[in-house]
Amino acid sequence: xxxxxxxxxxxxxxxxxxxxxxxxxxxxxxxxxxWADAIYKGSSIVERDAVSRGPAAKLINGxxxxxxxxxxxxxxxxxxxxxxxxAGVVAALSAARAGAKVTIVERYGCFGGxxxxxxxxxVLATHSNEKTGxxxxxxxxxxxxxxxxxxxxxxxxxxxxxxxxxxxxxxxTKYIMACMLREAGVDMLLHSWVTNSIMEKETIRGAxxxxxxxxxxxxxxxxxxxxxxxxxxxxxxxxxxxxxxKIGLVHRLGNTDxxxxxxxxxxxxxxxxxxxxxxxxxxxxCLDVEALTRCDVDGREAIWNKLKALQEQPGNEKLxxxxxxxxxxxxxxxxxKGRYELKERDFGKTFEDTVGAGGAYFGIKVMCQIPxxxxxxxxxxxxxxxxxxxxxxxxxxxxxxLIGPCLVTGQAAGAAAYLAAAQKTSPRNIAxxxxxxxxxxxxxxxx
Amino acid sequence: xxxxxxxSSRLRVSYVTRLLIPLMIxxxxxxxxxxxxxxxxxxxxxxxxxxxxxxxxxxxxxVAGLSIxxxxxxxxxxxxxxxxxxxxACELCGHVRSxxxxxxxxxxxxxxxxxxxxxxxxxxxxxxxxxxxxxILFGAFGMSGxxxxxxxxxxxxxxIASFILPGIWCRRICPLGGxxxxxxxxxxxxxxxxxxxxxxxxxxxxxxxxFLSLAAGxxxxxxxxxxxxxxxxxxxxxxxxxxxxxxxxxxxxxxxxRVCPSRIIAQDSNSPDTIGILAPKVSFxxxxxxxxxxxxxxxxxxxxxxxxxxxxxxxxxxxLARIDEPSCRLAWDAKCDLCMYVCPCEAIxxxxxxxxxxxxxxxxxxxxxxxxxxxIICPEHAISMKPA
Lengths: 447, 388
What we know:
The complex is a heterodimer of chains A (447) and B (388).
Chain A: H1 2-35, E1 58-60, E2 63-65, E3 72-82, H2 86-98, E4 102-105, E5 127-130, E6 133-136, H3 140-151, E7 156-157, E8 167-168, H4 170-184, E9 187-189, E10 192-200, E11 203-211, E12 214-225, H5 231-235, E13 240-242, E14 245-248, E15 251-254, E16 267-268, E17 274-277, E18 283-284, H6 289-311, E19 320-324, E20 329-330, E21 334-336, E22 354-358, E23 368-371, E24 383-385, H7 397-400, H8 403-423, H9 432-441
Parallel strand pairs in A: 3-4, 3-12, 4-9, 12-24
Antiparallel strand pairs in A: 1-2, 5-6, 7-8, 10-11, 11-12, 13-21, 14-18, 14-20, 15-17, 15-19, 16-17, 22-23
Helix pairs in contact in A: 2-4, 2-8, 8-9
Chain B: H1 2-17, H2 20-31, H3 38-43, H4 45-55, H5 60-74, H6 78-82, H7 85-96, H8 109-122, H9 133-142, H10 145-164, H11 168-173, H12 175-195, H13 201-227, H14 243-249, H15 255-259, E1 265-267, E2 280-282, H16 295-299, H17 310-315, E3 320-323, H18 338-342, E4 348-353, E5 358-363, H19 373-377, E6 383-386
Antiparallel strand pairs in B: 1-2, 3-6, 4-5
Helix pairs in contact in B: 2-9, 4-5, 4-8, 7-10, 8-12, 8-13, 9-10
């Protein structure tokens, strides 16, 4: 018996070995043919260069001078949304659904901003958490987006009645955002980095952006600044406050369910084996490109060092770094000096000009109504802002920068931009009751 | 005859007046006034003078007790006759036994105990403060748990001794009684001098010996303070006097335990040293020291916990918060600032550590008053409170 068993095992082993050898060689051939382009498939040569970056800068007396030149205006639209983050996308959807002609310009290749590109996956402050129970504050387009994510397998977790602060998958979110924008008929421009504003005295008329096609301009009746850094309103001369806050590099770890370590290493994602780590990072000025470079390089090095230390523990060998975010986790840079500044004491307050409400936030259980005044600058006309760079003091910006409030301010800014464009007036002059009516029609919750 | 009836009616009146103090103890323990500390001091002159010397303060309780002190100077053993409930109990026990027993063989150690205690009080170590009859009664009635049993035990010993040898406690041991005799000595001397009587040799020898006891008390007190190292291994209530002085000054009345709204003060039943047994200690297991409360100091009769105004009390350090960095949420890049948020003294800051590329919590030992709020709120139990 013993003898025979040994022989069979040996046979099996040999057979298995041959089989695996065959598979490996087959796979090698297949991967070569599938993934590599054949040398005989060349590019197609283009005759006419469509890039219009203007004349080159000149070196005059050791100074680089950019000559004056006309910038080609490629769009004239009702509402121009600058920045395709969560606030920008919702603003574009809100304005487009109300009936405005909308163009959205985004500097990266996907929508969602810090939610997707920055991998801040948790949608915080969606509900208030009072004694009477959870109240959903983020309704309307933001909630619609979350509900659509729920339909995608592995799209979102904790998006259900009785739960709050869902966590979504970044790729699903990018996809859903693009789908919704396309369905609403929004004109999209990706890979376009808005660098300056087009001014006519105190009134903003449009924005110019750099892209692979060179420098281009878009004019609009109303501009919504959802850049997060307030780049457009700052360029237009609106008063603002500058902030230094933590800059982290968010990343995701894979195989977290296949390791021994009981140590917590990040938040849950829709995928059981993936965790996202919201690195806090050093405080830095995120309008300083050198600081950003340092944060990215140092942050990535720190991630690898920490990963190595984790992997060296026995049983943790399978842990790996899935990805680091393509955008740095910038928390605050500019906040507007608006007609109103949101403060911590405004939690639980009621505003006449409320345009939405953000939910519970870290220890504070009541909702915070968001007044229209924080979206409108004091002086410059034709511009609104939404998202991280709205008017809030240096404590309250920790609330307004969360995705929940960003979705709310985005929708309010979009609807207000539509009204201003339709009435041919500046956003500061629109009738707030009309705006509230429109927002309610769009399903928003005003607190 | 008339003298006899006068005497017996005075005795009957004294039965009633001597029940006043137990009545007051019961009322106080039921209604628990904020200023609990006044009671023992204002009643017992021994306690009053010892604690006033030991804490070197003449506060409201001292002034409140001053009248009884003055009366005791003028009339010998006035307190024993008219106020002492323990004396009443001993007297009634003595009546049960028929026949006379002589106490002549037993020395009068009461005055020496009192002298040693007052001498120790000069060094802030009042030795026998805890066997003041009012403290014993207060402890026996008011305390629950080990402290209550100890005081009940002392009470039982006193009563049983009074059955066997009537008057032994009052006339020979009680430091309050001895104290009154010491206080009355000058007054008697003056009276004698006015009557031109010859000074009693026995009495002058007694006075000399009492003076020696006083000196021994001072020496002993300072010796304890200097020889036994005042290692502070326990967290004490805010405003507590430091080291060994606290352990002897505290009479274990339990007022601080009773009044603390957060219930963080408990009697230390497993103290590392014997003199610290049952002294109140603070433990932040379930709650923290409120910044709007100074009741423990207001309730302390002996001044072991100083009665400080709120602002002063909040500056006193109970302990010092320490953080176990690997357990802190920040160590795994999670966001948390609860300890910083709740700290009333702004002693906690997060500092970015470039090497670890993480934030770490830094606690400023000068600002931290050890209120323990951070320890209670920390979701990872990473903060512990250590004696400052």
